[in-house]
Amino acid sequence: MTTPGRAPVGGQTAATFGTVWRRVVRPDLPTSKKVLAIAWPVVVTNLLQSLALTVDLVMVASQGVVKQAAMGFATQLFMVGMTLATGLATGATALVARAVGAGDQAESDRSATSAVLVAAALSVPLLALTYFFDAPLLRLMTFGSTGADIEGIVANGSLVLHVLAWGILGYMVMTTATGAMQGAGDTRPALYVGIGVNVVNLGLDWLLIYGHWGFPALGLVGAAVATSASYTVGGAIFLVLLLRGRRPVRLATRDLRLPDTARRVVRVGGPAFLEQLLLNVGFLAYLLLIVHLGAASLAAHQIGLRVQSFAFMPGFGFAAAASALVGQGLGRGSPEEAEANGWVATVMGLACMVALSIPMFVFAPQMAGLFTSDPDALRLSVTWIHVLVFAMPAIAFHFTAAGALRGAGDTRWPLMVSFAGLWLVRLPVAWYLGLHLGMGMTGIWAGYLVEYYLRAAVTTARFGQGRWKTMKV
After folding, report:
1. 3-class secondary structure, 465
2. Where are the alpha helices (DSSP H) in 312-374?
3. Could you write out the DSSP letters of every residue in 230-299?
4. Which terminus of the chain is more solvent-facing, meaning fewer CB atoms within 10 Å of its CB: N or C?
5. Residue 389 near residue 361, CB atoms below 8 Å
6. Which residues contact 208 (CB under 8 A, 6 or more apart)?
């Protein structure tokens, strides 16, 4: 018996999985074009954002392996706080997409404005926490570890955090505004801003790390100043774009309904925030396991994460497309259209990431060699890249299916899957194989591979069931 107001989920599931292969060999070209139009600017934008962090890591390599590891560790801790922005962006994407699908411009603007205002307000306590408690936070994350390498990582990482704190407001505004615009399918502004952010970051890196043109040679601190300044510039540009009112989404100046709209943004984005928070704290716990294996292992892992950030770009792009188009389809009252959009985005993301994995595997030594000449770090980095390649199909399925669920407002399911995958699978497997059985980094990375395949299976099954079609935001 079917519950009133809810679609017959079981029948939809069988039909959906039965047509996946047909969509691979005979893709829906109009839908594919819509997906690609939204996805490619997101791919390039995230590529540019990862490039900024990668440039920092490459340029800091001249400072030694300990400082290189400190830069990566501090950046990872910084991103824990920035999960708030990710959650708000997810809420903004879902609400804006529904409003755009329903043709409600006022509601779309209210959702975007509320998300940006909440992000700006939350940046104040985050700045204070990061600025005044930089070293204690790093020591907390390395609890139980000792040695000269650890002391060097904490001392240098605290300097980086002290400076990055000043870029929090810009990052929060930039990320939230990007999410709002993605909900409307307007992904090109983030691309153009990303280009500007990278120009600022690269130019300041060159000036401040090495001391060119009479600027002081600040080394590691110079890289942090460049990153912080680039975030500030990016946030300011987004505010100008929203205020000018020439984009599909703009800042509302009247009838804001802030309490109600902000609550909806937080309600939808809250699980996404918790997901990212648990993931980032889990990533720090993962790093803590690696710290026990020495600076070379930690540096290799950070190098692998930079390569991973590029490998993830197609997944982010097609996940954004799935979020926007699924949300818009539901806003128009067409769950079948929303479902088709989600599957097309998933198939396209899979094809793109599998194609990308081939040159990654072949050129792994050359890619790792861009970051380090240390023989131990280089050897481990190549292994890490190869592990990442084998995880790519699972990553593609998980990213895009989770993006489709978030666009529908079903943000709690990705939260539960991410929590279980990281905390109940990856970390226990990594500890048992890597440290307890003494397999080292091979065991640590095995946990990563197992986790993603389990996450992909569960998330894709959830999307296929179709329960998200009756979600309210």
Report:
1. helix
2. 313-331, 335-362, 364-369
3. HHHHHHHHHHHHHHHT-SSS----S---HHHHHHHHHHHHHHHHHHHHHHHHHHHHHHHHHHTT-HHHHH
4. N
5. yes
6. 215, 216, 217, 218, 221, 222, 223, 225, 226
Coil/strand/helix, residue 127: helix
d(C-alpha 369, C-alpha 45), whole Å: 25
Q: Are 406 and 326 in contact (CB under 8 A)?
A: no
Q: Which of 14, 18, 32 is nearest to 351 (CA)?
A: 32
Q: How far apart are the first and last CA of the chain?
A: 26
- CA dihedral in degrees (45, 50, 51, 56; nearest 10)? 150
- Rounded Cα distance, 109 and 186, in Å: 13
Residue 324, Cβ density class (10 Å: 0-12 exposed, 13-18 middle, ≥19 buried): buried
Amino acid at 97: A
Each as own residue / partner, the long-range contacts of residues 376-380 (CB below 8 Å, 24 or more positions apart, any chain) are: 376/296, 376/297, 376/300, 377/65, 377/296, 377/297, 377/299, 377/300, 377/303, 378/300, 379/300, 380/296, 380/297, 380/300, 380/301, 380/441
Do 328 and 97 touch, CB atoms closer than 8 A? yes
Where in the chain are the domains? 12-470
Q: Which residue has the tokens 């397999």?
A: 439
User: Quick one: CA torsion of 123, 125, 127, 133, rounded to 10 degrees?
Assistant: -150
Average pLDDT for consecutive 10-residue bins of the chain (473 residues)? 34 45 58 80 77 71 73 78 84 87 87 90 90 79 61 80 91 92 85 88 89 87 90 93 84 77 84 80 80 79 78 85 86 85 87 89 88 81 89 91 88 87 91 88 89 91 86 72
Q: How far is CA 352 from CA 58, 67, 96, 184, in A?
A: 26, 35, 27, 24
Reported residue count of the chain is: 473
CA 281 distance to own-chain centroid: 14
HSE at residue 212, side-chain half, CA atoms within 13 A, is 8
| CA distance linking residue 287 with residue 69, whole number of Å | 11
